[in-house]
Amino acid sequence: LGFPPIFSAKLSIGLVKKRLEEFGLENRAKLHVIDPSKSFQLGHFHVDWFRVNHSIPDGLGIVLRTPAGVIVHTGDFKFDYTPVFQQPADYAKIAALGSQGIAALFSDSTNALKPGNTMSEKKIGETLDEIIKKAKGRIIIAAFSSLIGRIQQIINSAHYYDRKVFLSGRSMADTISIAQQLQFIKAPPGLLHPITKIGKTKDENVLILTTGAQGESMSALTRMALGDHSQILIKKDDTIVISASPIPGNERSVYTVINNLVRLGARVIFNQVMDVHTSGHAQREDLKLMINLVKPRVLVPIHGEIFMRQGHAEIGRALGMSENNTIVLENGDVLEIVNGEARRTSERVTANYIMIDGKGVGDVGAQIIMDRQIMSENGVLAVLFTLDAKTKKLIRDPEVISRGFIYMKESEEIIKETVTVSRKAYEEAMAKMPNGKRGEIKAYIRGSLDRFSHRKIERNPLVLPILIEV
Fold it and tell me: Domain spans of the chain?
């Protein structure tokens, strides 16, 4: 995109700058810290901001005033009436939008199917404080490093109960360092330490803040659960808190980590046991409030799966909006605003994932991606057929080469069977298709070997028949 200017609040810019530094791009990017109380002009667009609450401080919604109409984008938000270490939402600013003829409201849909209001972060802090107060041994808390308000509450409780805080995981250490520099986290001198400094600190004086709340394979918490962490070995009196909910698709990984920690004797607390996590996204009553305050002509649910966005659209309809004025868009759809009226058009723009592969951009086809996926999961089985150039008959038995397909203890028997199946498949193919093209012969062999490997060991490797004429 040619490094376009980026405008955001102080904390967001600090986090972006850190990532750019890792890739040596900080001097090429054009970063601008904005004052949310002030508006500014971008060409014909006039930009205003309003504060919202989220799991990370400094969350902002955007009011974009254009010649065609005014649109509002909430960003990720919730309404938290007792926010922790962040400013309250700009309720007055948001309510004032209701009289400004907003053409379209683009609103967060992540929790649109959950009834009620999103739990306040203050409640989570109280629960964590009670856990820290009662724990006898070490306390290990896994959380997203972006949960800065929650981390501040944990730091305060650790200080009150005479525990030092040890940081495990690069993103945790980096985010806390940036938040401290920008005055979003405050800690007494000598309270925060890298995990390498834990040494012989007494268990009752230890609190570890770590990454790995989603069961990531290389995260610090996962390595602790596997007994593979260089500083921490889990033991019986450890209390481990997973202060997060599994992102859809991560459930199995998270539960595996929990099971492994329990096997090692730890007490594990997670959201199904106590209230140790709350979402940063608005639930149904919060979404209703946003719609009622802004009073948009059109509601455009964003940020969430399509069934979540559809649920958000139904909230709008329940509040009296027509079906035509609650528009659920797919990636690539075009919403057009003319004279303050928003409508979906029949136009489509390309909005697919673009695969970057080495120096190639967008030139990797679906078949290549599928082949790579098969190889990563089931390995490769290559079979070399040496043929007489004139008679097309096999000169010798097929030669089998495999990578990542079979284990050594089972290889000898399976390779012998693979050779037999390969020879038979080739001979059958030639009998059925004496004038068949090489591609047809290969396809027949591939199908036979696919069926054999699945029947024999329930694996489906990438099969590569290779025909060589001599």
Answer: 35-117+280-348, 121-269, 357-469
Other beta carbons within 10 Å of 6: 15
Confidence at residue 405, expressed as pLDDT on a 0 to 100 scale: 78
210, 141 contact by CB (below 8 A) = yes
Q: Residue 209: which residues within 8 A CB-CB, separation 6 or more? A: 141, 143, 151, 154, 165, 166, 167, 168, 172, 176
Calculate the alpha carbon distances from 87 to 29, 57, 266, 331, 466 in Å.
Answer: 28, 8, 37, 33, 66
Show the beta-strand stretches assigned E in 398-469: 399-403, 462-469
What CATH number is given for 121-269 in this structure? 3.40.50.10710
In the structure, what pLDDT confidence band is assigned to residue 99 with cuts at 50, 70 and 90? very high
The pLDDT of 219-225, averaged and rounded, is 92
How much is the pLDDT for 364?
A: 64
Q: Which long-range contacts (CB under 8 A, 24 or more apart) does 321-324 make?
A: 321/291
Mean pLDDT of the chain: 92
- Per-residue pLDDT, 459: 80
CATH of the domain spanning 35-117+280-348, picked from 3.40.605.10, 3.60.15.10, 3.40.50.1860, 3.40.50.2300: 3.60.15.10
Strands 333-338 and 341-348: antiparallel
Name which of 320, 281, 289, 283 is nearest 95 in CA terms.
Answer: 289
pTM of the entire predicted model: 0.77
pLDDT of residue 408: 47
Q: What pLDDT shows up at residue 322?
A: 95
398, 385 contact by CB (below 8 A):
yes
CA distance 165 to 207: 5
Note the pLDDT of residue 395.
94
Q: SS3 breakdown of the chain: % helix, strand, coil, rounded to 5?
A: 35, 20, 40
- How many residues appear in the chain? 470
